[in-house]
Amino acid sequence: DVKVTQSSRYLVKRTGEKVFLECVQDMDHENMFWYRQDPGLGLRLIYFSYDVKMKEKGDIPEGYSVSREKKERFSLILESASTNQTSMYLCASRWWGRDGYTFGSGTRLTVV
Amino acid sequence: AQKITQTQPGMFVQEKEAVTLDCTYDTSDPSYGLFWYKQPSSGEMIFLIYQGSYDQQNATEGRYSLNFQKARKSANLVISASQLGDSAMYFCALLPPGNQFYFGTGTSLTVIP
Question: Would you tell me how many other CB atoms lie within 10 Å of the CB of residue A80?
């Protein structure tokens, strides 16, 4: 089974801190994604990547950046964390074609 | 533009009864996929069922079935014989050609003993 691992389940950071959320997948998937999930808003795409060193903005990229130096790892970076970035962050990966996503278990980030 | 709508923020069902979770979508692409995911309180997203736009029959996976009505652009999830472990958030998702999924806002299902 494909496994997508997010490094932290719960994270508490202070306003203004630089925050790294790490995601690693073990099945050589080309495509990786970062979503944030908020009540009543569903999942919203922040960034995605379809290859090493490639990245594309999603629907809500403001305040975030990403890094994909290796195929298996996709990092989400909050350059200067703000309280409105308190959310659940979900990483996903997939192959091309008709396959669905495989999700990580999520990181609940609280910015105080 | 792609759009997916779940109009039921919360649903309740008696244990062992069937329940239908609604999902409508909007896309101009003739080829697309529709997915349902379950998210328990632990947070992980679990794939449940997939329906392709050209599939002739409705998809089924165990107690899950997808009532696909293409002309009405609806893809409702039917859970038969509900169990307490079915209590979770359920998300419908649309995959048009390309790489990006579009998710609904979710339905919170509570199964009552």
Answer: 11
A42/B95 touch (CB, cutoff 8 Å), yes or no: no
Instruction: Specify which residues A4 forms β-bridges with.
Output: A25
∠ Cα B96 A98 B106 (to 5°): 60
pLDDT less than 50: residues of chain B: none
Residue of chain B whose alpha carbon sits nearest to that of A57:
B100
The strand pair at A73-78 and A19-25 is best described as: antiparallel
pLDDT < 50 positions in chain A? none
**pLDDT score for B42:** 87
pLDDT of residue B43: 87
CA distances from B17 to B83, B86, B90 (A): 9, 12, 17
Gap between the Cα atoms of A51 and A74, Å rounded: 10
- For residue B92, CA distances in Å to A15, B25, B41 come to 34, 9, 17
